[in-house]
């Protein structure tokens, strides 16, 4: 490709990237604006009231929950990721926070069943209020996004569960910010809890 063709191709790609940034901004704004904030408030209260918080999600949903878990740890809460080597047994008084766009991912549903059997509370973030996962939950946050197999959905032009996963991130960030603002801890205090073995 000559230099002129290369520049033209780069500017076409840049224009497409700009359009897609807008697409994602608009989709996440529309979807997160449709979240019932009372559900987010209920989730924040349950996190605050739990002895320990366990988190379980698969794939990208699980990765977003790991980011949320880090922030809850920065608040000084005791948090564990289901399936990690050092994660102890969940018991009564604990909260299991699960996220699954479909609400059917088997490992996540199984974790919720185990938590219920152990007497723990379960809070679920999902698109699907009629899913097995939602049926097990004491508290729900419904994110009205496309599910990972809703190809060609009118809810999103993005691939698979991306809109759910992005909205899950924003929703859990809002829960963190709400919990933090209810403390009198400055950022410097939270910073002391940051990993220092990285
Ligand atoms: O949010 P769900 O429906 O539980 O899906 C979990 C994950 O499964 C995958 O399909 C594969 O890991 C991812 O796209 C998604 O993050």
Automatic annotation (TrEMBL):
InterPro entries, alphabetized: PHI/rmpB, SIS_dom, SIS_dom_sf
Domain of life: Bacteria
GO MF term set: carbohydrate derivative binding; isomerase activity
Record flagged with keyword Isomerase: yes
Residues of the SIS domain: 43-185
GO biological process, one term: carbohydrate derivative metabolic process
Keywords, alphabetical: Isomerase
Family per similarity comment: Belongs to the SIS family. PHI subfamily.
Name of the protein this chain belongs to: 6-phospho-3-hexuloisomerase
Organism (species): Paenarthrobacter aurescens (Arthrobacter aurescens)
Lineage: Bacteria, Bacillati, Actinomycetota, Actinomycetes, Micrococcales
């Amino acid at each position: 490709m000559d230099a002129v063709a290369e520049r033209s191709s780069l500017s076409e790609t840049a224009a497409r990237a700009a359009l897609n940034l807008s697409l994602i901004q608009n989709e996440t704004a529309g979807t997160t604006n449709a979240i019932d904030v009372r559900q987010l408030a209920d989730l924040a209260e349950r996190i605050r009231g739990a002895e320990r918080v366990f988190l379980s999600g698969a794939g990208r949903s699980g990765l977003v929950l790991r980011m949320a878990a880090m922030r809850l740890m920065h608040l000084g809460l005791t948090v564990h990721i289901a399936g990690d080597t050092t994660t102890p047994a969940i018991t009564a008084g604990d909260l299991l926070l699960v996220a699954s766009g479909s609400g059917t991912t088997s490992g996540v549903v199984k974790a919720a069943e185990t938590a219920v059997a152990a007497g723990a509370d379960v809070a679920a973030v999902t698109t699907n209020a009629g899913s097995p996962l939602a049926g097990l939950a004491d508290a729900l946050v419904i994110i009205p996004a496309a599910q990972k197999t809703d190809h060609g959905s009118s809810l999103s032009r993005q691939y698979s569960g991306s809109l759910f996963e992005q909205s899950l991130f924003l929703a859990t960030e809002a829960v963190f910010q709400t919990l933090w603002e209810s403390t009198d801890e400055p950022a410097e205090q939270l910073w002391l809890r940051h990993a220092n073995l990285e």
